């Protein structure tokens, strides 16, 4: 029997342990979202909130798209679940084909997961297993980069480069090293698009190779544009140089495009934007417009084919998830890709990028602003931290923006922006004007 103290009110906030959230602070003054359509959320108190972040870099086609929700409902009614090991269903194959249709040349195979974090773990494991399959099993080291975010599982946390994300979790994976990050505010502050300085930072990979020997290194993983740590755009020529060094030493290059995939830079993938072909691309978020959890790894034929040897009755890769390629996820993915194609959303960012850049850089000179960065429809406004209280200023901006009807994202003292790709110029004006107001209102 429960006594009265154990009876929970329907709106009791205690049970839910929220992710990446200051739980006690939030629960003392909650911010709730209850509905969404196109460019706007509806807050719990009925206010319309302009979405400056595509949810969390994922709702690329805007909210509440009927084609996607109807496809999900139809699929759940028709075939709710199908085992994905030693069994198939048509839509998973169809979605893999549709992804390959828009992928950079040579990336012709898709392994499904359920999140960006799982896509990253999958790619890292494929890299290790690939080298083993080719008789180079000594290649076990994984190279990440400072200020990288590759999700929260143990592999992704290990190759990731965010101190607070790492320090609670022990020694993480062994055999991991990190490139230096590419954020050079002294030289590159207020760069428009790709910054001019910092190409030489790619040479750090040569030093890592010299230290560990190429024969021990399996793969390098980078976000083409680091998103979660504040939109760090790679210096001119940097990614190309990484590709060259990887090629020289037989090291795989993995692009984590969980954010940059599906049109964020005005091309289907950042690999297209930069004209570089990585060996694998990790995807999630925009793959289903954020609606159904789904991740994927695009894999080169060279890697895939290295596994397709040996007796045909043998399982080639001992890896997979209960919901890899799940019917509802596949239906959502197909409807999302159809929406992107029909509305030209994968290239819409290219049409709006100049307007976006101009609007963002109009905040140069606004209170607290020490840097502004942009590429495609990504943007960041870096604020001067309050002395002795890092992150407080950006958090105040976030709360004030929400009160004023804007959803922005903050990381450290950086405001990061990534509107849905259906954004119109008037939304950009409203978002940037609104941020200007917020910066004038906060301390
Ligand atoms: C580049 C990158 N990789 C991986 C992830 C992890 O994705 P998820 O939160 O779906 O696990 C994210 C999430 O923001 C990301 O930005």
Q: How would you describe what is shown here?
A:
With 443 residues, the chain is of the alpha/beta class. The protein has two domains: 4-60 and 344-441, Aspartate Aminotransferase, domain 1, CATH 3.90.1150.10; 68-343, Aspartate Aminotransferase, domain 2, CATH 3.40.640. Helix content is 37%, strand content 16%. The protein is built from 16 helices and 15 strands. The chain has helices spanning 23-28, 54-57, 66-78, 90-102, 116-133, 154-159, 163-166, 185-188, 204-212, 238-249, 270-274, 301-307, 327-343, 345-361, 392-403, 425-441, and strands spanning 33-37, 40-43, 48-51, 107-113, 141-145, 176-179, 217-222, 252-256, 280-283, 295-300, 369-375, 378-383, 406-407, 409-411, 414-417. It has a seven-stranded mixed β-sheet with strand order 4-10-9-8-7-5-6, sandwiched between helices. Helix 4 packs parallel to helix 13 (327-343) and helix 14 (345-361) runs parallel beside helix 16. The radius of gyration is 22 Å and the shape is globular. The structure holds pyridoxal-5'-phosphate (PLP). Pyridoxal-5'-phosphate binds next to helix 5. Pyridoxal-5'-phosphate binds at residues 115-117, 120, 149-151, 223, 227-228, 256, 258-259, 284.
CATH fold type of the largest domain: Aspartate Aminotransferase, domain 2
Low-pLDDT regions: none
The ligands found in this model are: pyridoxal-5'-phosphate
Helix content: 25-40%
Rg estimate, integer Å? 22 Å
Adjacency order of strands in the biggest sheet: 4-10-9-8-7-5-6
Estimated structural class: alpha/beta
How many β strands by DSSP? 15
The overall pLDDT average reads 97
CATH architecture annotation name of the largest domain: 3-Layer(aba) Sandwich
- Globally, the shape reads globular
Which strand-content bin applies to the residues? Answer: 15-25%
Number of helix segments?
16
Main beta-sheet annotation = 7 strands, mixed
């Amino acid at each position: 029997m429960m006594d009265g103290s154990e009876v929970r009110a329907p709106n009791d906030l205690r049970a839910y342990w929220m992710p990446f959230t200051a739980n006690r602070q939030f629960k003392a003054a909650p911010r709730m979202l209850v509905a969404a359509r196109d460019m706007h959320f509806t807050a719990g108190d009925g206010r319309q909130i302009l979405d400056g972040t595509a949810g969390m870099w994922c709702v690329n086609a805007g909210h509440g798209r009927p084609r996607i929700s109807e496809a999900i409902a139809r699929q759940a009614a028709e075939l709710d679940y199908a085992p994905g090991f030693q069994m198939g269903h048509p839509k998973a194959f169809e979605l893999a084909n549709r992804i390959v249709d828009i992928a950079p040349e040579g990336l012709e195979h898709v392994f499904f997961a359920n999140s960006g974090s799982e896509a990253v773990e999958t790619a890292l494991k494929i890299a290790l297993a690939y080298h083993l399959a080719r008789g180079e099993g000594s290649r076990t080291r994984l190279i990440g980069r400072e200020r990288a975010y590759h999700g929260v599982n143990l592999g992704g946390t290990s190759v990731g480069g965010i101190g607070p994300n790492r320090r609670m979790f022990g020694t993480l994976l062994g055999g991991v090293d990190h490139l230096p990050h590419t954020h050079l505010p002294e030289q590159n502050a207020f760069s428009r698009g790709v910054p001019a300085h910092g190409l030489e930072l790619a040479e750090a990979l040569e030093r890592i190779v010299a230290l560990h020997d190429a024969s021990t290194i399996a793969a390098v993983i980078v976000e083409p544009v680091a998103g979660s740590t504040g939109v760090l755009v790679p210096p001119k020529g940097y990614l190309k140089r990484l590709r060259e060094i990887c090629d020289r030493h037989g090291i795989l290059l993995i692009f984590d495009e969980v954010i940059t995939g599906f049109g964020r830079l005005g091309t289907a993938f950042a690999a297209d934007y930069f004209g570089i072909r990585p060996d694998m691309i990790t995807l999630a978020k925009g793959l289903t417009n954020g609606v159904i959890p789904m991740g994927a790894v695009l894999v080169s034929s060279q890697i895939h084919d290295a596994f397709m040897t040996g007796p045909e009755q043998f399982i080639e890769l001992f890896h997979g998830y209960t919901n890899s390629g799940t019917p509802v996820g596949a239906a959502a993915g197909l409807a999302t890709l159809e929406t992107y194609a029909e509305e030209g959303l994968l290239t819409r960012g290219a049409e709006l990028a100049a307007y976006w850049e101009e609007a963002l850089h109009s905040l140069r000179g606004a209170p607290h602003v020490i840097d502004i960065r942009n590429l495609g429809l990504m943007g960041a406004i870096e604020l001067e931290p309050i002395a002795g209280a890092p992150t407080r200023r950006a958090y105040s901006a976030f709360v004030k923006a929400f009160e004023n009807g804007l959803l922005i994202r903050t990381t450290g003292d950086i405001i990061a922006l990534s509107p849905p790709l259906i954004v119109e110029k008037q939304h950009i004006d409203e978002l940037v004007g609104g941020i200007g107001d917020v910066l004038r209102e906060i301390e």
